[in-house]
Amino acid sequence: MPHAIESFLASQTFAVAGASTRRHKYGNKVFRALLDAGRQVFPLNPISEEIEGHKAYPRITDLPVVPESLSIITPPEVTRQVVADAVAAGVKNIWMQPGAEDDIASQLARDAGINVIDDGSCVLVLLARE
What we know:
The protein is α/β, with parallel strands linked by helices.
């Protein structure tokens, strides 16, 4: 397993940008997979108040703690704002899930010294192996 992924998964706190209330959606599956793996995880969703029984937060800056790792499942144009918020908050690891990748956001995060995974790999596949 590459070092970037190990660092992401070794974190104590996580957030999922694009977490969804709809169980068939990828954002819900990633959120549930992290919960099922025993992680402390916060859902980020600007329109839902609760996801899977957990309080949802509109933006990373609204969270009670700064998550060490952030999984992003948003359209690329939204990813840019999510990453800008993550950089400002001090997030250490960002994993852009397939379809969320944005070159500008990736460069912004790397320039800030953040560990970035944006190679098309999927957190669900890795969590299934743990």
